[in-house]
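Hi R.,

As promised, here are both runs. First protein below:
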Amino acid sequence: MNDQNQPFDSASEIHDIRRIMERSSRFISLSGLSGIAAGICALAGAYFAYDWIAEYYVNYDQRPGYSGSEFQKLKLNLMVLAAAVLAAALVSALYFTWRRAKQNKVPLWDLSSRKLMWNMLIPLISGGIFILAMLQYNEWRFVAPACLIFYGLALVNGSKYTLSDIRYLGYFEILLGLISTQFLGWGLYFWAAGFGVLHIIYGTMMWWKYERSQ
């Protein structure tokens, strides 16, 4: 009787060991709902940005290109909008991640989450400084591609400390950013697709795969 149950017990023990090792080395409390919320925030921000940019170009012939005060005002408004979208996305991501961590009875801030944060911050901070330098010199055409590429690099770099599925989102973000370098007048659309549509698709898939049963 014991010999018959031994294979089952061994398989169960191996599964438990793998689960414990995964929890200790990877941050597995990322919520798909946080991706959906971030995507909605990005699409809302893209809507307002499109409206402001379109309004600026209505009377573009009577304005001094990209050196006048009107363009500086537009650039400042877009930067504030981007900061607001980022803040809203971060708050929603923290909330849904905290809720899932609480459901799984695991700490939100541990060694794996700290490793995830630092590995994502390195490309994000580097990209942010690079983008600010481009805006300083009015090289705005590559801002959207740079946002997508550096964000994708951050996802790929941090994927080894969380769910491996996030790596594929990073690949798509990088690919979309590279493609957008060849369609410079469509940067806002690519930005909305990468940060909005891809996030919603990814979040929905992650929710369906990992959280639906809960």
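And here is the second one, sequence first, then its structure tokens:
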Amino acid sequence: MLAIIVEAAVRSLVFAATIWLALKAFRVTNPHIEMAAWRLVLFGSLAMPFLGGLPSFPVPTGTLPSEGVRELHSMLSADPPLLLSPSAGPVWPELQAPAVDWRKLGLAIYLLVAAFLILRLLIGIILTARLCCSATPVRESWTLGHEVRASASIRAPASFATTILLPLDYPSWDGTQRDAVMAHESWHVRQGDFYVLLLTAMNRGVFWFSPLAWWLHGRIRYLAEARSDAAAMRQIDDRVRYAEILLRFGAATSAEPVGLAMAGTMTVPWRVERILAEAVLPKAMTWKIWVLLIAGMLLVPARTSRSALR
């Protein structure tokens, strides 16, 4: 099992490196295209343990030494047995101390860390689901049919599955701020970003020893926010005002729920810089771009990863 997981992580790393080089070569900066590319890398990473087959490189087994056992067996099977001496009595062969089984130890450490990360994720989901259930429903015309709830436990807008969470001070917002928030969070809901982030967290739990799993989670999270920022700016048509809204929420954000906070403290500075630097809003994906992207992902990187591991 451990050998298959390690090889899958190596294959995923080669696959992701190929995609990263391709994005850099074509100077892709559109967050919609980047998100599509890294989503396919995520799905490939999760599927890699089932596609790799038997491991092509050995994992040290660290089995117990058997030299002493074989020597003892040969002495007992001799005629007469070599262990018996008329003068000195029985002579026992010197047995080596048992060595550590590194395979079992490595598997135990892997399962322990993976179980901890998955358990922490499940606890976070349960706690955030309870927060959503206890939040007050918001039934206003500007919710546009979305499930919107308000809670005193959050200080910045967020989304959890298909629910949009707002802080209790939302009635004090003006129309522009409210439209920006709803455009941002409704885009998360429409694109299923919560479920994609859930998969990245699971991928991080399975491949916790791989730097790619941690980087991929952060990158997809940032791109999800960048795409929602573009939807919000398209709605209010005011970059400077939207940057001010992000900074205000970012300063007020405390602990984020297991979902997508509009102003996560780790991503706000980069997003504000990008918002103010871009001249035009990024265009969304079309079916032609999807076809080209999937074709390139399935053909070129797959062959590259196979040849690199031979």
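A quick note on the second one: The chain has a mean pLDDT of 81. Let me know what you think.

Best,
J.
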